Amino acid sequence: MCIGVPGRVIEVPGDPPGVARVEVQGVRRTVGTLLLEPPPQPGDWVLVYLGLAMSRLTPAEARETLDLLDELALLMADDGPLPGIAPGLGADPAG
Predict the structure, then answer these.
(1) What are the boundaries of each domain within the chain?
(2) 34 φ, ψ to 5°?
(3) For residue 45, what is the enclosing H or E element?
(4) Alpha helix (H) ranges present in the chain?
(5) What's residue 71's pLDDT?
């Protein structure tokens, strides 16, 4: 499963152009920002997927998504794989 995760823009160095430093769950990484117009500014929330900032998020959207990801991680840790999900195949139609 591939998902985008919320990240908060920490800095936009300007060199090289089209990148920003983003913090995702306490981890800082450099992501591409060329898909966003106007470019993001420090403090903005963005949806990061495959090393790219795909879209902007409101702080409320970012918080809601992070809370849901935390909840999913707890479910996975407590019970193993979610029922009805075949590893690597997505939902099992036979369910």
Answers:
(1) 5-82
(2) -65, -15
(3) strand 45-49
(4) 59-79
(5) 87
Six-digit token pair at 79?
Answer: 């019970």
Instruction: DSSP letter for 13, please.
Output: -
Whole-number pLDDT of residue 1:
59
Report the predicted TM-score, pTM, of the whole model to 2 decimal places: 0.75
| Mean pLDDT of successive 10-residue stretches along the chain, which has 95 residues | 88 93 93 95 96 96 91 76 46 38
pLDDT of residue 93: 38
Residue 46 to residues 11, 12, 59, 72, 80, Cα–Cα distance (Å): 13, 13, 9, 20, 30
Whether the Cβ atoms of residue 20 and residue 40 lie closer than 8 Å to each other:
yes
Phi/psi for 7 (5° steps) reads -140, 145
**Pairing of the two strands 5-11 and 45-49:** antiparallel
What's the CATH number for 5-82?
A: 2.30.30.140
